[in-house]
Amino acid sequence: MKTVKWASILAVMASHLLLGDQTLVVTLPHAGTDWCIGNPCTVTWTISSPVPGNVAIRLRRDGAPDGEPAAWILSEGTPAAAGVFSSTVPASLPPGRYFIRVKASATVMDDSPAFDVMDCTAPPGSITVTRPNSSSIWVTGSEATIRWTSINVPPGSVAIRLRRWGAPEDEPAVQIVWDSTGNDGEETWTIPFAVEAGDYAIRVKYNNDIMDDSAKFKIVAAGPSKSLTIVTPNGGETWRLGSEHEIRWQSSNVSGNVRLELVRYNDRTLGVIRDNQSASGSLSWEAGKYSGNTAPPGKYLLRVRSMADHEIFDESDAPFDLTTLIKQPSKPLLAKMAVTRKAQIKNWMGGRTHPSQVSPPVDLSVFQARPKCVPNDSQHAVVGAEWWQLAPGIRAGCLYRSQVLFRLDDLKGQGKKLRQATLTFRRDGHLCTGDARVSSCVLSICVLLTPWVKYDEFQIERINAALKQSGEVFRIDVTEAVRQWLDGARENHGFLLFGDELPTSKDFACFSCFTPSLVLSMD
Hints:
Elements: H1 6-19, E1 24-28, E2 34-36, E3 40-47, E4 54-61, E5 72-79, E6 84-88, E7 96-103, E8 109-111, E9 115-118, E10 126-131, E11 137-139, E12 143-151, E13 157-164, E14 175-182, E15 186-190, E16 198-205, E17 211-213, E18 217-220, E19 227-232, E20 238-240, E21 244-252, E22 258-264, E23 269-277, E24 281-286, E25 289-290, E26 293-294, E27 298-306, E28 313-315, E29 320-323, E30 344-355, E31 381-391, E32 394-405, E33 418-433, E34 443-448, E35 460-467, E36 473-477, H2 479-487, E37 495-499, E38 509-522
Parallel strand pairs: 2-9, 11-18, 20-29
Antiparallel strand pairs: 1-3, 3-6, 4-5, 4-7, 7-8, 7-9, 10-12, 12-15, 13-14, 13-16, 16-17, 16-18, 19-21, 21-24, 22-23, 22-27, 25-26, 27-28, 27-29, 30-32, 31-32, 31-38, 32-37, 33-36, 33-38, 34-35, 34-37
């Protein structure tokens, strides 16, 4: 026999008799309403016909899912026929975007449009720039930290400008540092060499009512660049622990002594090899010895650092090996198309135009006799930047980038047999003109993770190596990248060479061309 739950049926019937097909509409708050915390507030609604019963009135966060509790329960038992309810916005309610829900039953309810609840007693917003201050002196080409504090500034971003000190409001900014950056109180900026020496102020601006200018500070022109360069070991060497080898390093505009340090690759500094060495020089080293200890076998870098200024240093461009025993390597196997003349190279030039701020224009005569290679030469990787005058007030900058691809299809699946892969670049030509402080034409070498089909669109993984102006032959350990290509863990899209920075001085240009080759040592 089927049991009929008469109580439940009667309850449903009573609900339909009381409410019928009712329509409930919230009429206040409406779009554009603002409630102030601590002030009175009113909710009004209409129902298509008067009925007995109560409504629940709740304030809910805008965008909240139905399962999220109400932010504020105004009433649980207000007569539905009343059509109005008043209260005071509690002080504990956080400012934000909300809506009101008036509910008579599961099927008879309505939500108001979203509106703002705000702290109407909060003081006006303000921004204060704390750095640079009146004692700050910034040098072109160096990094500078901009700091500011903000009070009662709505979430969002700020604009940062470099302005000439004392300039009228209608004078354009000298430099747009950031058009839009997060209001987090700090940004690091590299001061362009094109900025003239003088007195300036940094402006941080939220809107026309909320902004601040820093105290007056100075920007000065950079002096001669200072650098240290490791010559040997610079990557790819294999030295037996305890054997004698020569360490060599060079310097430019560095005074005082330097320190030589041994660094475990991808780990930490082990210790000091020798202190108080001349800024440029050489040293006979018992491989692996440092600070009275001997390093274990593994991959290492050599670091040379100024003892007077620890920010001036250099490391080996790639790791070298320290081992207990040097085995005679098997005859290197040259992968198909891995020889220099068969490397597939794609050179790409992208153009940019900028208002001229300099005079005279770049002297193009240095580019009329390019050293051994030209931008569309398929035998050389071409990297560099050049500027020239297009018309009065307009100049253009072109940055060359090169893809170097070696076909390794005949070695697919042999990654476990790969002992070492060495990528070599021989510099066949180099030109550098103008203000040498701008750049030393240092180039990045990266593994391409995606096909390179557009000039500025690519995904890369950087290699810890650079092709510096002072060198002629560069050997880079690319074993891990090649092993992944052979094993199929990554697709082989080759290597990408590009200049890290586009020079911006009035008459500087840098241009280099390289012959690449790849040698694989297989078991």
